[in-house]
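Duplicate of #3305? Posting structure anyway:
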C-alpha cells in the first residue's frame, strides 16, 4: 500500500471543518486590521532562502527540500514565507504603489525536520508581513493580531514572550561579551552548542540540553547591550502592548532561529502542546529587503503554525466549530418517485438550500437514519397520501412538528431559511 510521506498528513473532512473555521477567523481579523492577502508560489530559487534566512541557520543548513529541475536550476519548496513575500514586494515594486504594505498569507510550508507531535515536514502557516514602517507601534500591531487570533479561537494557556536583539552593531558587541563569558565553559557545552559557538553563538540559547540551559541562565543578557534607538523602540512596544491589555513577559534569551531579525523578536507559546510549544513567532527585519536587492525598507511580521494551534485547541478543549448540518434530507417513500425527488433536490440546491437525497433505493427507516447522521434540520417526504393530495410532508427534526407544503410552493420552503 502506498502511504502518505512521513511528516505529512491528510486533512480529512471532519478536520477540514476546523481548518476552514480557523482560516475564516484569520481572514476576518486581518481584514479588521486592513491587511491584504498575498499568495506566492510553492517553490522559489534556492538562493532566495539561502540569502534571506541565512546560510548558518538550521532551516538552510539541514531542513530545506531542495532539488534541481530539468534545466538544472536549484529550486526549494518554501520553508517560510518572509523571504518569498520580500521577493514579491521587490519584484512588483509594491513599495512604489503604497508606502505601507500590510500583507497576510495562509500557506503550506516544507521543512525536513524530525517529525513529532506538532512538528511536520509539510505544515501550514498563517502570518503577516508589514513592509514600509519603522514604527515600533507596527511591531505591537502584529503581536496584538497574533494574540487576538489565538484568544478568539478560545485558547487560554498562552504566554507572549518578547525581546529586542537590537541593530547588528550592538549585537556584535553583545556577541563578543557572550563569547568571553562562554570561553572557559566551552568544554561543558554540548557538541551542537560548541558548533554554534563558532557559527551562530546566539543560538546556544535555543539548546534544550539541561547543562547548556544552566550555563546560559547566568549569561549576560542582550538587553543590557542594546543601542539607544533599539532600547527606546522596545519601550514603545511594551507600552503599546500594555495599553492594548496584552499580557507579556520579556525573555532576553529569545533570539529566534532565523538570521534576518533586528530589534523586536517575539513568540507566543502554549502550555498545552509539549515540546513544540511555539504557536507563533516573528519580529522586525529592517535589513532583509535591502539584502535581497530592494531599497531600504523597514519591516516586521510573524507566522503561526496551524497544526500546532489546532493541537493546542484540542488539548485545551477550545473551539468546537459548528459542524456541518444540512438543511433538507429528501426521503423517497415510493421508489418510482426517485426522479421527482432528484428534480426537487436540484431546485432546492439552486436556492442555496443544503440538500441531500438517497441514491440507493433504501428503506424509509434507513433514509431517516441517514437524515439523522447528517443532522438534517428538516426531512421532506415524497410519496404517501399527502403527495396524492399534491403536497410534501415536511418534518422539523428539532421540534418534531410536521406540516404540509403544496408541491409547487418552493418559495415557502425557501422562506424557512430566508433564502
Ligand atoms: P518560525 O519560527 O520558523 O518563523 O515559524 C513560525 C511558526 O511556524 C512556529 O512558531 C511554528 O508554530 C510553525 N512551525 C515551524 N516549523 C514547523 C514544523 N516543522 N511543523 C509544524 N509547525 C511548524 C518563521 O517562519 C518566520 N517566517 C516568521 C516571521 C514572519 N518573521 C517575520 N515575519
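Output from current build:
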Amino acid at each position: 500500500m502506498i502511504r502518505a510521506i512521513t511528516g505529512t498528513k491528510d486533512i480529512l473532512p471532519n478536520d477540514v471543518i476546523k481548518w476552514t473555521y480557523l482560516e475564516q477567523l484569520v481572514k476576518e481579523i486581518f481584514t479588521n486590521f486592513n491587511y491584504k492577502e498575498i499568495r506566492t508560489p510553492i517553490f522559489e530559487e534556492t538562493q532566495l532562502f539561502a540569502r534571506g534566512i541565512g546560510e548558518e541557520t538550521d532551516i538552510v543548513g539541514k531542513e530545506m527540500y531542495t532539488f534541481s529541475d530539468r534545466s538544472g536550476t536549484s529550486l526549494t519548496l518554501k520553508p517560510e514565507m518572509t523571504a518569498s513575500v520580500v521577493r514579491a514586494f521587490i519584484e512588483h515594486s509594491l513599495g512604489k504603489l503604497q508606502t505601507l504594505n500590510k500583507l497576510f498569507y495562509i500557506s503550506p510550508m516544507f521543512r525536513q525536520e524530525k517529525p513529532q507531535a506538532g512538528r511536520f515536514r509539510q505544515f501550514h502557516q498563517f502570518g503577516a508581513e508589514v513592509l514600509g514602517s519603522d514604527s515600533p507601534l507596527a511591531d505591537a500591531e502584529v503581536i496584538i493580531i497574533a494574540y487576538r487570533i489565538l484568544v478568539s479561537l478560545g485558547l487560554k494557556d498562552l504566554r507572549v514572550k518578547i525581546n529586542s536583539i537590537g541593530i547588528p552593531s550592538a549585537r556584535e558587541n553583545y556577541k563578543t561579551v557572550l563569547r568571553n563569558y562562554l570561553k572557559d565553559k566551552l568544554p561543558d557545552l554540548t557538541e551542537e552548542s560548541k558548533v554554534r559557538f563558532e557559527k551562530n553563538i546566539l543560538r546556544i540559547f535555543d539548546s534544550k540540553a539541561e547543562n547548556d540551559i544552566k550555563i546560559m541562565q547566568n549569561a549576560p543578557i542582550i538587553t543590557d547591550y542594546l543601542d539607544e534607538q533599539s532600547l527606546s523602540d522596545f519601550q514603545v512596544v511594551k507600552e503599546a502592548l500594555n495599553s492594548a491589555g496584552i499580557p507579556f513577559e520579556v525573555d532576553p534569551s529569545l533570539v529566534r532561529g532565523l538570521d534576518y531579525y533586528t530589534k523586536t523578536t517575539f513568540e507566543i507559546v502554549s502550555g498545552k502542546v509539549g515540546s513544540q510549544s511555539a504557536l507563533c513567532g516573528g519580529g522586525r527585519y529592517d535589513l532583509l529587503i535591502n539584502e535581497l536587492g530592494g531599497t531600504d525598507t523597514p519591516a516586521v511580521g510573524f507566522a503561526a503554525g496551524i497544526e500546532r494551534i489546532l493541537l493546542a485547541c484540542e488539548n485545551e478543549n477550545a473551539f468546537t466549530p459548528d459542524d456541518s448540518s444540512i438543511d433538507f434530507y429528501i426521503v423517497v417513500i415510493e421508489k418510482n418517485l426517485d426522479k421527482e425527488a432528484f428534480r426537487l433536490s436540484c431546485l432546492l440546491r439552486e436556492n442555496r438550500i443544503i440538500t441531500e437525497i438517497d441514491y440507493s433505493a433504501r428503506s424509509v427507516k434507513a433514509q431517516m437514519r441517514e437524515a439523522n447522521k447528517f443532522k438534517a434540520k428538516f426531512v421532506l417526504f415524497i410519496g404517501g397520501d399527502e403527495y396524492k393530495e399534491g403536497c410534501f410532508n415536511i418534518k422539523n427534526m428539532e421540534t418534531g412538528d410536521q406540516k404540509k407544503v403544496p408541491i409547487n410552493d418552493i418559495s415557502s420552503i425557501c422562506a424557512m431559511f430566508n433564502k
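Confirmed duplicate; merging threads. Residues 80-82, 111, 113, 119-120, 123, 125, 127, 129, 258, 278-283, 285, 301-305, 307-308 surround histidyl-adenosine monophosphate (CB under 6 Å). The CA atoms of residues 65 and 76 lie 6 Å apart.
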